[in-house]
């Protein structure tokens, strides 16, 4: 079976982890600090805070933004459920707006028509690695006094109008799950443009601990003293995983180049095939392709999915519209509210996309698609 997605780990990665295992720190220590600084250099963010997962990163970002009961978070349904459920965990009310018909990213026009003075956060998702239209979204956010969270689980290394993802929104979240563009085995990160937001993110992921004597309520308690002023959780990434992340960052450009080559080979090999629609890329973005989201037309997606799996090709579907999940259905959300997202879901089929794919693998996938759709 050709894997739909998988990590790319080499001997340098193994040795980087082994060095930490031989050292004094396993949990959060100097390697985490080095990893966070490397992320800051890559993204242009003021502060990066590593985390135990992409879901944790979203929870941290919403908490740093001050999301709480009565606040409104407006987001896209075409994403993994954590983009919305992490806001629910803080007591927010989540609202969904439809996606662009071509990119499956949140539609800026629909968003602008939907925000209110209760909107605390706008959360967009860089679907498949293609950045959202952040300039227009930022304008909408400024108009209503909201912050923007860019869920960049798919897009570390992407650029928008020459600017790195991580330097575009108030808060940006990354995922380093094994199938993502780089990995820490499990992990994520939050990038903040504002230093105060970055500090809030750090403290929330560090159990709320305050160690700055000037901020303490009881600073003379003793040199051991630390205080908790606001609720936080232990979302700290350990050094042993940060070591893998540091090593992987050195190959991120190579991963991006290989994924771009695979994307181009799919585009060429599937051009002109009836019954399918190929993904799009806008000229002002330079994506790192996390997914290759083929669209199967004519109501044949399930048929083609089954045929591809039977042919030894590990395809997947990304994603069920979030409000179709029973959790949200039981909250009163109804099918039909975001027709572009629902049509996209009905047609979407993710072909294998990862740096370990050979050209022969890609050609095998292309042949399987052609056979499945009769092209």
UniProtKB/TrEMBL annotation:
Transmembrane segments: none annotated. It comes from the Bacteria. Keywords: Pyridoxal phosphate. Belongs to the DegT/DnrJ/EryC1 family. It holds the Pfam family DegT_DnrJ_EryC1. InterPro entries: DegT/StrS_aminotransferase, PyrdxlP-dep_Trfase, PyrdxlP-dep_Trfase_major, PyrdxlP-dep_Trfase_small. The keyword S-adenosyl-L-methionine does not apply. This is UDP-4-amino-4, 6-dideoxy-N-acetyl-beta-L-altrosami ne transaminase. Signal peptide: none annotated. Its cofactor is pyridoxal 5'-phosphate.
